[in-house]
Design a protein that fits this description.
Elements: E1 3-5, E2 20-25, E3 31-36, E4 39-45, H1 50-59, H2 61-73, E5 87-90, E6 93-101, E7 106-109, E8 113-118, H3 124-151, E9 163-166, E10 173-175, E11 181-184, H4 192-204, H5 213-222, H6 226-234, E12 241-242
Length: about 240
């Protein structure tokens, strides 16, 4: 989906102590994304007027103010280090990174270890690429299985779209209007309960595309503890908020 950033500079809205950037695209609804405590992005359809956008912001003002405070209180995410002995999460379990010289290059998962075999053990960037490739491959396997499991929570719901996995900076997952689901490869670091929350969230979009009352009613019906599961997504990762 092609995005067009508004040509006017970021603006300040009364009651919000952070600049708001407007991004237009061929989407159907307006959405607010809190990228950080100091960065707000409003995503809007190409033809929606600025007055409609201001009205939408006004209607969500309490939500924005409340969650900007929450974001300001969150610690900055730890920068991952790809050295011997560092801890890396997989399915919510810390794994000690073990680096061994050898070829062909491979990543092997043990109960409490993540073994990386590489011809260049001092190349952190190369080790990072190996681990990220491993996570993408394993993530696709895990997510396919979790979709099958989470579909059982729904009555007469089928997923016939495409599932894709990629590394994303600003969201855990997305669902297109065509019913295709994309999940963040980094999600495979979180516990299964958290993965199931994101998967179930996106499956709910197959029936209710917008984050409206009907959407959250369905989410609460199929996953009553979804608010508790949200805490599992936080951890050390910085998770933007969207409405």
């Amino acid at each position: 989906m092609k995005k067009v950033r508004d040509q006017s500079p970021a603006f300040y809205y009364p009651g919000i102590d952070a600049p708001v950037e407007l991004v237009r695209s061929r989407r159907k609804t307006i959405a607010i994304h809190l990228l950080s405590a100091q960065q707000i992005e409003v995503r809007a359809p190409l033809q929606v007027s600025r007055q409609q956008i201001d009205q939408f912001i006004r209607s969500r003002l309490n939500w924005i103010q409340r969650n900007l405070l929450l974001l300001a209180e969150r610690p900055l995410p730890a920068v991952p280090v790809f050295q011997e002995g560092e801890q890396h999460l997989f399915l919510g379990v810390p794994r000690k990174l073990v680096i061994a010289r050898g070829s062909p290059a491979a990543v092997i998962l043990f109960e409490e270890q993540l073994l990386v075999r590489t011809p260049t053990p001092s190349d952190q960037a190369g080790i990072q690429r190996q681990i990220e490739k491993f996570c993408r491959t394993r993530a696709l396997e895990v997510f396919e299985e979790r979709i099958r499991v989470c579909l059982q929570r729904f009555e007469a719901l089928e997923f016939s779209g495409e599932l894709s996995v990629r590394k994303m900076k600003r969201r855990w997952g997305s669902c297109s209007s065509a019913g295709d689901i994309c999940l963040n490869s980094l999600l495979v670091q979180r516990p299964l309960a958290a993965i199931d929350l994101v998967v179930t969230h996106e499956l709910c979009h197959l029936r209710h595309f917008r984050h409206d009352t009907a959407f959250y009613r369905l989410l609460s019906e199929v996953m009553p503890d979804w608010r508790d599961r949200e805490r599992l997504l936080e951890g050390e990762a910085f998770i933007p908020l969207a409405m």
